[in-house]
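Q:
My hope is that you can spare some time for a protein that puzzles me. I hope you can help me see how the letters and the tokens relate. Thank you; the sequence and its tokens follow:
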Amino acid sequence: MKPITLHNKTFEVFIPETEIAAIVHSMAHNINNARIKDPLFISVLNGSFMFSSDIMKKITLPNTEISFVKLSSYSGTQTTGEVSKLIGLGQDIRNRNIIILEDIIDTGITLEKIISLLEKEEVADIKVATLLFKPEAYTKEIPIDFIGKSIPNDFVVGYGLDYDEIGRNLPHIFKLKN
């Protein structure tokens, strides 16, 4: 597959669409086997929309719901270190078993903010599922329950992930070419 150019940067295929599908299938299997009672999946927008859609098609747990939150900590290819809550939950989630769906966890700043907000809502339990995880960049102590794939600390785009809002529609995940 050929490299692509987004804005002024060149990216090469890093995780092809077929591998993404296999990762999502495996993660859904592991979540289903965890037998979490009446889970509320919380998809972190915008990046996790493709991942959330694909994984939810494979979740077989009874009484499953999904909701969405939108937070942001990126500008260009760098995290800003600050999280802004843009859109919140519209329902009572007290005593619910929550599964956070993230496209990628790098520093953990966004995850820490989301968990802080959820704990204030007195939820019963919080699990974290992320398609991609950057262990070299992770600075928090929050356990991540379901990891699709650990990757180096490279900038990636595609399959919901963006570079200044473009590239989300790409079926593969691309990494910044050196």
